[in-house]
Design brief:
6-stranded mixed β-sheet
Length: 214
């Protein structure tokens, strides 16, 4: 079992504190992540509230979602595997569900994490992640989905269906699948994590920025 050291959470408050100390704050500008293993949706429970972070597994660094841009390079383009929900384009931009494929392409190995949630806290030892909304270049989009290698959809931003918007995950695990984008542009993906603690529903909602390069 891996032991994680929670090294750093990069926030505006941290930058402000350093500025007060008279140090250069340029290192605390928005961060762009382009490759490596990243827990895009990383839920944590502090004993009173749920929180969502972005956890860079490569450096064991946590970021507030608003402080991170996830970059999907041109190298992420692959042939459309032909699943109907991926549209009719010949290619899609893919963050694959295996680390070997992601490393070979030089792209992010993205996941949905509950590894920092322990058993015995949430009802049934699980939480749900809901895709609240998705936009591309400021407009609602049908061009985002998450699916397994066998073509089983976990999430689909298509507003024509109410399905594939929420999924339940056990606590204490990583959950890897393919993150697919059908068109280039700037995506804003809003997710909510929710669970029940002592009969009370707890949740946290954050928006993630993903830039898909043509």
């Amino acid at each position: 079992m891996r032991t994680h050291r929670r090294l750093l959470t990069v926030t505006g408050l941290t930058a402000a504190a350093i500025a007060t100390a008279g140090l250069n704050t340029s290192a605390f500008a928005a961060t762009t992540l382009t490759s490596g293993h990243v827990d895009v949706l990383d839920a944590e429970w502090d004993g009173a509230d749920l929180h969502l972070h972005v956890h860079d597994e490569e450096t064991d660094t946590e970021y507030e979602p608003a402080d991170v841009t996830l970059s999907v390079p041109t190298a992420a383009k692959v042939t459309n595997p032909g699943y109907g929900f991926l549209g009719s384009g010949s290619q899609i931009w893919l963050l694959p569900d295996t680390e070997v494929e992601a490393d070979a392409a030089g792209v992010l190995f993205a996941d949905i994490s509950t590894e920092h949630l322990t058993t015995g806290v949430f009802a049934n030892n699980n939480v749900s992640y809901r895709l609240v909304s998705a936009t591309r270049n400021g407009a609602a989009t049908e061009d985002f989905s998450i699916y397994t290698g066998s073509g089983v959809r976990w999430y689909d931003s298509n507003t024509a269906t109410t399905s594939y918007k929420s999924r339940t995950f056990a606590v204490g695990v990583h959950n890897h699948a393919n993150w697919a984008f059908e068109e280039p542009g700037t995506y804003q993906l809003t997710f909510r994590v929710q669970g029940t603690v002592g009969g009370v529903t707890e949740s946290a909602t954050e928006t993630y920025t993903v830039v898909v390069n043509p």
